[in-house]
Write a structure and sequence with these properties.
The complex is a heterodimer of chains A (347) and B (295).
Chain A lengths: L10 H5 L5 H20 L2 H26 L7 H17 L4 H20 L8 H20 L1 H4 L5 E2 L3 E3 L2 E3 L2 H22 L3 H11 L1 H6 L4 H27 L1 E2 L6 H14 L4 H24 L11 H19 L3 H14 L6
Chain B lengths: L1 H31 L6 H19 L3 H24 L7 H23 L4 E2 L9 E3 L2 E3 L1 H23 L1 H11 L1 H6 L4 H27 L1 E2 L6 H12 L4 H26 L3 H16 L14
Antiparallel strand pairs in B: 1-4, 2-3
Classes of the chains: A mainly alpha (347), B mainly alpha (295).
Chain lengths: 347, 295
């Protein structure tokens, strides 16, 4: 049953992730459908879906840092690159994915924490610039450490493997990406029910009060950078496995902007928002591609303009969301749900 | 020694352009507290518009330049009115994102109209180099340094002596007090954006003339100017000038002497290394007001 209001009688109920059996059942059903998708979808749609899954993990990571802890970061593309290149290197040594993915995540977390140190002194605008600098410095490292990264030419990534199991097609990588995504979403959801997660939110809302309340700012800010970078590292690692070939061009500064757009459009400080935003930003170019191919007969010039159209719609989406729906799609979703909750008797 | 002088000179030329674009940043930040990540796109648009006017209308360069500047002013005002005004009072991240979104839109417009190929820029300055001491200097360099110096002087005088300039400084100091003194803060905001768009357009034209061609990579200067304004102090116009020259010279020297050691690319990353260093030891820059809240 959809509830018509909050009738919680205990803290345990208030903290619960699922507030009704229906929510739990529909999620289970959705996961079952998702499991069957690779059996029927074309390789094009598998590719899109995989990129959505990776984007969800990355957007979640960025949201933990920017949306929940309030630390603006423009370095997320570089952190993803760190994860991706670690995976490329570790996988080329013949390690299975159960080792490479967590190791890449941990390595990225360490790098992220190093670049998170300035957050102790800087905030807002200045932190954004420090992380922007981090992006360019890591990019420089990636393009110049030829023996590991292959420099500007990039490097190929062996298929994800575990003993005899080889995930060498989009359909197989899909299971890896989505099972990891499921666990990481669940972890994030639970993180904000714990002391650490509450400390993050306290830092975002008012850092000075948080410190007065006994939250160790340096420790928790670094931890937030660490957790966030771990997510981004895992996303980068999966990206490497999915793309099979990575070069610095996979991780431009515009990728960092894409991820920021995901959490802005989806909703800052919302797990659901990260998912919706990742879906929106990854789906937008595909929807545009579909639209241009449909309109091809009427306006043949559109195909040539596709690249600039994509860029323009992307920018416009960010600007319009910020002006008209600053809390993002997650807030809109909540409003819709509240409206239907009492339908047809809402005021 | 010649090599050193050449690098120094290149640094000063590039640095003067940085100073110009940095000044655009500072004017906007000072009066509206917005850091404009679309500054590089203003530059790009200015260069392309002047190119389009000179090639299609067949009018003299000077007239085309005036038209370009008029357009830039209108663009600045329109952007302030349509995009930035609804964002007043929003969190920093939203304001950063809105200018990033704006930069995407502007880049899309440029790409959609002019494509991605490099367009040759009309030769405005004679190609024959002038010799200063042992170093040959292209005339475009001298002209651009001259333009930048004149502009910076004009702006300093404007902020120091004119009524409007003083009103803008008052707005930067405190919007509330400025309002109570009968200054139209809205007008000052619009003016700040118009001025920033104007100096960026000039920067774009100069850079186009120096490189003898324009393409989308021109917009990258918008990101490279961030270390400049941080080094100089985000709210200081003299800071932008000093920072611009310093970063221009430093990156050229670093590129000239260190590139052979690490295999290129130092020029692109050096300003950001300086940026991190400055942020760690003196976050308000050389000339900026100290108002960063530490936590």
């Amino acid at each position: 049953m959809i509830r018509c209001g909050d009738f919680k009688t205990s803290y345990a109920k208030d903290m619960a992730i699922f507030n009704s059996g229906l929510a739990r059942c529909s999620l289970a059903l959705f996961l079952l459908v998702l499991l069957a998708v690779p059996l029927y979808a074309t390789s094009y749609w598998m590719d899109v879906l995989n990129r959505v899954g990776i984007a969800i993990i990355g957007a979640l990571g960025l949201n933990i840092l920017t949306g929940f802890t309030g630390q603006i970061s423009l370095g997320n593309a570089a952190f993803m690159a760190t994860g991706a290149y670690s995976t490329a290197y570790l996988a080329s040594l013949g390690l299975p994915f159960v080792i490479t993915i967590p190791l890449s995540g941990i390595l990225t977390a360490v790098v992220g924490m190093i670049f998170g140190v300035p957050s102790l002194r800087l905030k807002g605008l200045y932190l954004a610039m420090a992380t922007l600098a981090a992006h360019f410095i890591i990019e420089f490292g990636v393009t110049h450490w030829n023996s590991v990264t292959g420099g500007v030419n990039g490097t190929s990534v062996p298929a994800a493997s575990l003993f005899a199991l080889k995930l060498d097609s989009d359909g197989k990588v899909f299971y890896l990406i989505f099972s990891l995504m499921f666990f990481l979403v669940l972890f994030a959801k639970n993180l904000f029910r714990t002391k650490v997660g509450k400390a993050f939110v306290a830092i975002r809302d008012q850092d000075i009060s948080a410190e007065v309340m006994g939250v160790n700012l340096f420790k928790y800010k670094l931890m937030s950078f660490g957790v966030s970078s771990f997510y981004l590292g895992v996303a980068g690692s999966l990206l490497a496995y999915q793309a099979k070939y990575i070069s610095p061009e996979n991780f431009p500064i515009t990728l960092a902007i894409d991820y920021l757009a995901m959490i802005i459009i989806g909703g800052m400080g919302s797990i659901l928002g990260s998912i919706l935003g990742a879906l929106f930003i990854t789906g937008l170019p595909e929807a545009l591609r579909l639209a241009t191919s449909v309109l091809n007969d009427v306006f043949p010039a559109l195909v040539g303009l596709f690249a600039s159209l994509k860029l323009g719609v992307f920018g416009l989406a960010i600007v319009l969301f910020l002006i008209f729906e600053p809390d993002g799609m997650a807030a809109r979703w909540r409003k819709i749900k509240t409206y239907w909750r009492l339908y047809p008797f809402s005021h | 020694m010649d090599f050193f002088l050449q690098l120094l000179l290149n640094g000063v030329v590039v640095g003067s352009i940085y100073a110009l674009v940095g000044m655009g940043f500072v004017i906007i930040f000072k009066s509206t507290s917005v850091l404009n990540f679309a500054q590089g796109e203003f530059l790009l648009l200015g260069a392309y518009i002047s190119l389009a006017i000179t090639t299609s209308c067949k009018i003299p360069f000077f007239a085309a330049m005036l038209l370009t500047l008029a357009f830039a002013v209108l663009l600045g005002i329109a952007i302030e009115r349509l995009i930035l005004r609804p964002m007043i009072g929003k969190p920093v991240i939203s304001i950063i994102m809105v200018t990033l979104g704006l930069s995407s839109i502007l880049r899309a417009i440029v790409q959609g109209i002019w494509g991605t190929d490099t367009r040759p820029f009309e030769e405005i300055f004679p190609a024959a180099p002038v010799r200063i001491g042992p170093v040959p200097v292209s005339q475009a360099y001298l002209w651009s340094i001259g333009c930048v110096v004149v502009l910076l002087l004009l702006f300093s005088l404007f902020f120091k002596y004119t009524r409007t300039g003083i009103a803008m400084r008052a707005t930067a100091f405190s919007q509330r007090i400025a309002l109570s003194m009968g200054i139209s803060v809205r007008f000052m905001f619009a003016l700040a954006w118009a001025m920033a768009a104007l100096v960026s357009a000039i920067g774009g034209i100069l850079l186009g003339a120096i490189r003898t061609g324009v393409d989308a990579s021109l917009a990258l200067i918008g990101l490279k100017v961030i270390p400049v304004v941080i080094l100089g102090g985000l709210d200081s116009i003299p800071g932008a000038i000093v920072g611009g020259l310093l970063i221009g010279v430093l990156e050229n020297l670093a590129g000239g002497y260190l590139d052979t050691l690490v295999g290129g690319g130092i020029k692109e990353v050096a300003p950001f290394v300086i940026l991190v260093t400055i942020l760690m030891i003196k976050p308000h820059g050389l000339f900026g007001k100290v108002h960063i809240q530490r936590v």
